[in-house]
Amino acid sequence: MNKIISCVPNVCEGKDQKFIDSLVEKLNVVNGLIVLDVSRDSVRNRTVFSFTGPQEAIFEAGLMLYRESLAHIDMREHQGEYPRIGALDVFPFVPLKDATLEETVAMSVAFAQKVAEEFNIPVFLYGESARFPMRRYIENIREGEYEGLEQKLKDPRWKPDFGPAVFNPTSGATVVGARYPMISFKAILDTSDEAIAEYVSRIIQHASGGLAHITANPGMDSEHKVAQITVTISNYRAMPMYRVLEMLRVEARRFAVAVRKVEMIGLIPEIVFIESAFYYLGIQDFSFDKILERKIQTQLDEKIQPS
Amino acid sequence: MNKIISCVPNVCEGKDQKFIDSLVEKLNVVNGLIVLDVSRDSVRNRTVFSFTGPQEAIFEAGLMLYRESLAHIDMREHQGEYPRIGALDVFPFVPLKDATLEETVAMSVAFAQKVAEEFNIPVFLYGESARFPMRRYIENIREGEYEGLEQKLKDPRWKPDFGPAVFNPTSGATVVGARYPMISFKAILDTSDEAIAEYVSRIIQHASGGLAHITANPGMDSEHKVAQITVTISNYRAMPMYRVLEMLRVEARRFAVAVRKVEMIGLIPEIVFIESAFYYLGIQDFSFDKILERKIQTQLDEKIQPS
To answer: In this model, does residue A2 exceed pLDDT 70?
Structure first.
């Protein structure tokens, strides 16, 4: 299986363990579906599912999640420390391995249309699937949250991409689209001065005029009493990790502060490391086909499924 | 297929295309075998095969190569610009992906024993499979080459690991063992002064007291008129690529010379790049399980072959 598209739907329920268990049970019997992870967060009152598989399996699992979530969750009663706009808040499609962005976008749009048809709720396309620049960033779509949605849907600029421009009080709306996997890491600084982390964060992140596709949050590692910066890269193909880290190092150097170490957060696509290695090693034109494991896997795949 | 052991046997025949074609034909019908590459070299008069597959497939293919090579090649008539000791000169087993060195060594030893039993020729274990320090390096086993083999076999220190200590004039002896994949790259220097490449090569390579597991050959890139160093790492787990390149850069800096670029030669295991990325990015304790594609592949394998 060379081509992998994964999905990470966010359901607005993180307290009811029984309900989440019932969803996992239903996911596990979908033919061909691979459930990668289930992260329930009771503080934010949301659960993030992560799965992959062939398109039929993804669609079947996805529509089941909508059906169950819309039946179970009443947004009029939902509380949670995280911006959200609907019971099944966001359904991202993520290209991995040899999957292209184009086919991931196409899959997400086809799925968004099915959701609108089957459940008759407003569906917004975001990320790489967005049809309007404003909708590229989910923050814009979520602005005003569920509570502001009724008003927002009256604004013609916020006509949904699919489904009716009608406020559904129990379900809210939903956001569907393709995005790159998010890369997150912590850079632990060689200082206990949090102000330095704040300064550097401000310099490097997109919101304050730094690098595109970057958010940076300063903080303290309370155990070791050192300042740290948590960085998230929303499009690692356009903004490779080495470039972000090197700018962070350059700005920290103004205070004679070094990066003591870097800790990766969550799962990371291998291409992130391979591209960084190429930069530092001075490799300018290596073909990925010359990575041994890829060549072998390609030949195995050809042998197993002759076309 | 997560666990991959590949083999790269060297046959002492690089001129007779018909014979090589007949070997490839026979390899292609071995059940489960994946032929990765066949490199015929008429100047050195040898052909290097590269294949992988389950153990039965590897053994069947390997024994076939011995049978055909010993029947076809008469070492009394063999000429070639490369040290060699027998008709099937060396049969390396290489651990890739999740294959451990231990199981690769075990497989190579079992295979060596079968070769001795079936063909009654002297078999030396080398590389990670060697039972004596002297035999670790194939150069030591090949010293004196085929022409010196009769004499060498009379020396009790050169009793074969398997098979008789008897000189076989048509077949010679053979060398079998496990070794890491060799990593080769060219460092193109920012100078046309070949003497700098010579100096740096001498400093970094093992033979003249530099880094273990390293050979370095200075030369000129005739097209761009710049000096270059071709480096080979024989054990990249013990001597990661970034360490070699950084020592090379440090020594070149003595002459204010930079590495203009690095060109990788042949197929490279991805771990080489990932470990180098960890070094440069300052990642100290990342678990390989957190590489997305590995996690997914593991779960796919579990799903497909429930144990």
So the answer is: no
| Better-scored residue on pLDDT, B261 or A267 | B261
CATH of A183-290 given 3.20.20.70, 3.40.190.10, 3.30.70.670, 3.40.50.1220: 3.30.70.670
* A291–B270 CB contact, under 8 Å: yes
Put simply, whether B34 touches A (Cβ < 8 Å) is: yes
Residue B287 banded pLDDT, cuts 50, 70, 90: confident
d(CA B10, CA B174): 10
pLDDT digits (tens, 9 = 90+) for B66-92: 999 999 999 999 987 788 999 999 999
- Calculate how close chain B gets to A66, using CA atoms only, in Å: 24
Q: What is the pLDDT of residue A43?
A: 83
Kindly list the residues from chain B whose CB atom is less than 8 angstroms away from the CB atom of residue A269.
Answer: 291-293
Predicted complex: ipTM over 0.90: no
Q: B residues 157-196 near A, CB within 8 Å? A: 181, 187
- Nearest by CB to A34, from B241, B286, B303: name it: B303
- Phi, psi dihedral angles at A178 (to 5 degrees): -100, 140
B292 Cβ under 8 Å from any chain A Cβ: yes
CATH topology of domain B183-282: Alpha-Beta Plaits (3.30.70)
| CATH code for the domain defined by A3-178 | 3.30.990.10
Beta-sheet pairing, B88-97 with B174-178: parallel
| B253 has a chain A CB within 8 A of its CB | no
pLDDT in tens, A155-208: 999 999 999 999 999 999 999 999 998 999 999 999 999 999 999 999 999 989
Domain boundaries, chain A: 3-178, 183-290
Model confidence at A224, pLDDT cuts 50, 70, 90, reads: confident
Q: Which residues of B touch A296 (CB under 8 A)?
A: 4, 6, 34, 36, 52, 96-97
CB atoms within 10 A of CB A243: 16
Contact A282 B300 (CB under 8 A): no
B198 Cα to chain A: minimum distance (Å): 21
d(CA A248, nearest CA chain B) in Å: 11
* Residues facing A174 on adjacent strands: A123
Per the prediction, chain A carries an average pLDDT of: 92
Contacts of A34 in chain B (CB under 8 A): 296, 299-300, 303
